[in-house]
Write the structure tokens for this entry.
Amino acid sequence: MKNCDVIIGGGGMVGMSLAIALAKGGLDVVVADPVPQSAATDAKFDGRVCALAYASVRMFQALGVWEHLAPLAQPINDILVTDAKLGSEPSPFSLHFDAAEAHTDALGHIVENRHTRTGLFAVANTLSNLSFVAPAALTNLEYEGAAVVATLANGERCKARLAVAADGRPSPMRELMGLSIVSWSYAQWGIVATVEHEKPHNGVAYEHFLPSGPFAILPMTGNRSSLVWTEKDKIAPAMMKLDAEGFDAEIARRFGSHLGKATAAGPRWSYPLNFHLARSYVKPRFALAGDSAHGIHPIAGQGFNLGLKDAAALSQIILDAARLGLDIGSLDTLRKYERWRRFDSLVMAFAMDGLNRLFSNDVAPLRLLRDLGMGLVDAVGPARRFFMRHAGGDIGKLPRLMKGEAA
């Protein structure tokens, strides 16, 4: 049986970020994941991108990950938010965020998930007190005195003072430990594809609201963009079955001509959109982080940033307790994390839920209200700058990592 301080079920981007922060703080960490490292970094495994807020970039700089990502990251110089019916001209009321006004080099960075995983593994592989075990999902947890004993799918067992579930939205470990969730479906699907286009995007990200849901165009390196297309669940399967010519035609209807001819490159992905929030984040010697704790609508691309805040806050609380000689798995210690993160996650989750419900319809009075609201925010400098800071993850009580400091 292995012995460690913390075992993490789930070696995705949040789980590995947490593991690196804890290991750099001096704890012995084991990460168990069903997907081997070589598969997790393959382009065919996950073709999505994440919009890293500048607070998240500071965290990756503090962890030594950013040096691996910087050459592969596309800065977001501007964000343009518009509203329109399909096939119609955008509303004259729009919202424009400018990095220069925010006094930052970029409003965020777009990084392909495979590159983020590669960067995380590059750092993790240098840490002798961090072990990555795969393919081997964490399948069971049992209490044994002042510890938990974890059983892995490959038969190995590990004794730890704390177990963390970072195993995604379905989270088998959350279910095993009896932490319930509040959840509902949006009757929408997300369609993701990489698009190549003739003209440069100049680092501009577009969020175009259509009656079926938001249609985001996120700038990638080169003349490429990531398309995050929200579609009604009754229509999305038919869109996914279109041939290349038909799919490109549907993109053109929504994409417009501002970047010239646009063509989907590589595979497409689709997944149902839903909401969930854990009623509790912790039990003795057990905590949730990332998507296992909360799943929000991708309308503003904040899901991964929210998970990174979990990792930053949890690592800070655990390491502070360890430095004081306290029990890192005690309920008193873990409830500090829950109090810090659950309210923030709840506010963000319901804000994204409200935005989606406000914009994903074609009700004339609501359309007028939201368009006037965008125009008002765009016209009022302090309001506009507040929303830019919020998008950058720079609002509220920030963990040390998100200030660019060591955990």
